Amino acid sequence: MLIDWRSMSFRERREALQGYLSISPWVIGFLFFTLVPVLVSVYFSFTQWTITSPSEWVGLHNYIRMFTQDPLFWQALKVTGNFVLISVPLKLIFGVALSLLLNLKVRGMNLYRTIFYIPAVISGVAVSLMWIWLLQPDTGVVNTLLALVGIKGPGWFWDPQWALPSVALMSVWSVGGSAIVYLAGLQNIPPHLYEAAKIDGAGAWQRFWRITIPLLTPTLFFQLVVEMIESFKVFTQAFVITKGGPLKATYFYLYYFYEEAFQNFNMGYASALAVVLMVIIMTATIILNYTSKHWVYYAAEEEATK
């Protein structure tokens, strides 16, 4: 929408100018650090470029190679897809459960909320190193504790069957961050709905399924999209812990992208990989947004604004 500056008063012009100046850092950052790199990546995805030599236009060659001649692409896509299907439900369930605990009115709750939130801001490399120590098969803390009760612990990151579930389990470590978001959603539910349900004889379980979950669906939908996108971008765990192994069990999509871009220096092909990942994430987000109208209930927001 175009603004007719001539029809605006001096005060309106000043307020509009102040508004544009306020958002200009974000706009400039978006243009130069997001939009322009994306457009450049799309261009280079149609080229053969190895950094040391000038880029050469090859059209759809990178995409044809990716879908018809590259088994590593399909392996990385399969591993990442399985990780998304495992980790996202885990983080949603544990996030909601933790938020319910953090919503209890007990003494010192602010301290508990801070403690559970801290893992969400710790460096991914430090967390990965900690989990190597915890899940080391022979001397790790977890297997040592399991041995005390007569259980032989698995190989975790070093076992092809357990490597991917181990990384998914590790992702639950930072669930405190999403729990704070769920907590905000819980506190936005009008208390009188619970009071009315109690008067009608509804138990705790009925109140949870008939009030809490339906009115928490907007927050659940938001976190579902965010967690899905973050799960597609998993990289640090594979880079620090497994190097894509064992037997490509944790060969995540971004790890494959890293190898092509910064080890093999196939920047053109790596750009094509990035574009495909962007399309996959956009498609999944659109599908989730389209299906959300069948299960997301916005009555909580309407009640809160009354």
Description:
The protein starts with 9 loop residues before the first helix and ends with a helix. α3 (71-102) crosses α8 (175-187), α3 packs antiparallel against α10 (204-232) and α10 (204-232) packs antiparallel against α13. With 306 residues, the chain is mainly α. The longest helix has 35 residues, at 10-44. 23% of the residues are buried. The chain has a two-stranded antiparallel ribbon with strand order 1-2. The protein has 14 helices and two strands. It has one domain (66-305): MetI-like fold (Orthogonal Bundle), CATH 1.10.3720. β1 and β2 (56-57) form a beta hairpin.
Q: Major sheet, described briefly? A: 2 strands, antiparallel
**Count of alpha and pi helical runs:** 14
CATH architecture: Orthogonal Bundle
Element pattern in H and E: HEEHHHHHHHHHHHHH
Shape: globular
Note the gap between the termini: 31 Å
Mean pLDDT: 90
Name its key features.
306 residues; mainly alpha; two-stranded antiparallel sheet; globular
Helices and strands in order:
Blueprint (H helix, E strand, L loop, with lengths): L9 H35 L2 E2 L7 E2 L3 H8 L2 H32 L6 H9 L6 H12 L5 H8 L14 H9 L3 H13 L3 H9 L4 H29 L3 H7 L10 H11 L3 H25 L7 H7 L1
Antiparallel strand pairs: 1-2
Helix pairs in contact: 1-13, 3-7, 3-8, 3-10, 3-12, 5-11, 8-10, 10-13, 12-13
